[in-house]
Fold this protein.
Amino acid sequence: MITSLEFLLDNIKVITLPALPIREVVLFPGGRVPFIVGRRASALTLERSVKIGDQIVLLTQKDPKQEEPCQDDFFEVGSLVNVESLIPLPNRYFKIGVRGAARVRLLRFLGEDEMTRAEVEILDEPDIREWDSNSKSEVIDNFYHAVAEFLGRYPDAARLLSIEHVKLLPINEAIDAVAGLINSGIQEKQQILEQVELQPRMDTLMNLLQVDSDRFGVDQELEHKTRKRLDEGHKNFVLNEKMRVIQQELGKKDEKGELKILRKRIIDAGMSEEAHAKSMEELDRLELMPPQSAEATVSRTYIDWLLALPWTKFADDRLDLDEAEKVLDEDHAGLDKVKARILEYLAVMRRLRDFQVALPPDEKRKPNTEITTGNDDNKNESSSRGEGDAPPALRGPILCLVGPPGVGKTSLARSIARAMNRPFVRFSLGGLRDEAEIRGHRRTYIGSMPGRIISLIKKAGVKNPLILLDELDKMASDWRGDPASALLEVLDPEQNASFQDHYLDVGFDLGQVLFLCTANVRHNIPEALGDRLEIIELSGYTPLEKKAIALGHLVPKSLERHGMLDLEIRFEDGAINRIVNSYTKEAGVRQLEREIASVLRKLARHSLQPEKGEAFDPTVSEDRIVKLLGAEKFLETPPGDDITSGVVNGLAWTASGGDLLTIEATKVPGKGNLKLTGKLGEVMQESAQIALSFVRARAVQIGLAEDFLEKIDIHLHVPEGAIPKDGPSAGITMATALMSALSGIPARSEVAMTGELTLRGMVLPIGGLKEKLLAAHRMGRKTIIIPKENARHLEDIPKEVKDALTIHLVSKMDEVIPLALTRLPNSSTSL
């Protein structure tokens, strides 16, 4: 490293030096600047090859957002600088102080060994002797005059550089010194840096000084007008205050009619003591403000929000279990477990209400102090002024309905609200990433307002609505906060009795609100939030349940929506079955509803334009489905006789239900490599490695040589390669596919399996069993192999599905082979 700066400038024109990319800074020769270095490549460059006294190159980026710039991302001219200080900081950061020495032109930007270097040409400063002659005296005097005006406008710049110091510097150094202080953009400063000749450099700087002077004049004019208006507003405020004091002294003070009405409404609103005191305080402040002031509008809006909340209004709960069960059955087929849990909830509320009614008047509990383990610190916030007897508050867990799209989670919440006679409001959490959406904005911000929870309470008009928190698993978080953390207070029965919205800044009791949540994937729910929820799983529907839902709910609803109730349209069972099996592939019934609507649209046109198509026929039979809906969208592949070795049927769980997962394996000449394709996740790749290790350990038992893998490669593929796949439950399927491919023995096409495999050959339990068995039933696979430990989950499987399947429970891989392969491998050793 060359350490003599004078030698470098006098004798070398092209040199390669360490280089640092910098953002939004242009350093001129003679200028000093400290800055922090944090980028990995820059930090490594300083750490390995730079010390105090060395020379480096600073290159300014055109785009400051570029994290890994290349040569085209820098301006052509940069600065050669001398390192004056270099201080290591924690986490491999550095604080570096440099002084500009010369202009350099970038020839090549190099990145070697994770460091940054640059080959540059050192640009000589021009000859300034002609500027010392009288011919340039007028230009120089104009320059000094413009610099003096600039320093007079900015005292901070004048403290760094005086006009006397400028006059003592050579003209080229004086231009660079002033250019470093001017408040301008990177592009304008870079233009000065790139001017090697003095006259263009001087002209560019003089233009910038003129622009700065014009801008300063405009700013001064605006500031003067603004101050004048503020002074007038202050004058009006003082005069109004004096008039108000005079009226008080004369005994003529009389509240405005509107403020009287507000005060009466606050008294009659039945707010909590905290909210009552806060609203009265805000009203007193409002009386002292000029009506036209911005603060008066903010205070009035705040009081209006407090008055709009239903402090004492409650919906009359309908706690008739028979009626509630009837409503739930009318709106939804199946879902017996979910309905039972809802009815249990209503039963406890009914018991609480009956218990409270039976108490003597002097022993009845006050509102919000029911049988609960709530914190006594919230008593003041919980008690309310002028509030009547509130319904019993059930401090129980929050229900969360988890299941694939289209299984009826949102509509079930509506039915629960209808059964309980409570207003229903919905809060979609999908994509939510701002904590203020939950807790609101503080009133210090312009345009602030309460969060969505308080807004929904206001919209419902009662203190005990049913609030649905939809898509709980699709929240996000960023620098604006974590909405999931904000929901902890909302959904915790021990905390939400005094929920604090940032805008209201007073406690509001959410204990009477019935919260319901929905999600598609359970493991995407934040752990702390899930701990406060009672998860109720909603699995996909069987074909029989879909047919019942279609005939009992979807068809009548679609007929009403399309205005076709008078046409007496009737769907035959075979038609519904054809739509379910050939035009939908889902766990829920949304696509089924769309296909039914498509059929009805065509029938509506047939009824109005019979001459342009098929004659109108109100009966929809199975044979007409293809004509009405077109070619079948999904072709079920039944087990056939054309079976191939290396192909095995697995079962997979997806967010939209279960699916059949075909795994293919083949061997090719090679050197013992295992190739995996099909966009497999890390866990699934590990399962394939375990399966191969298990097969190699069983090589002799399946009739293979111990060194069979030395001359072949194995390729394992999972079709539908564009779809990501992961999870350990395909372990036994992969092992069976490898055995089948290596031994040449085909697997049974009517068999499907699922289970995690260990190196010892043990079969471990899996999740999503119901969805997987429904998929096997739908796809025509009759023999199913599942882990023995999953036997306890079979009670959740619909009876018609279990009756149609032959389910084998296994605990070891050795039990899978005779069930899955068409014959046992030729071996003298027993499996």
In short: The two ends are 72 Å apart (CA to CA). Confidence is low (pLDDT under 50) at residues 365-388. Residues 92 and 788 are 53 Å apart (CA to CA). The longest helix spans residues 198-249.
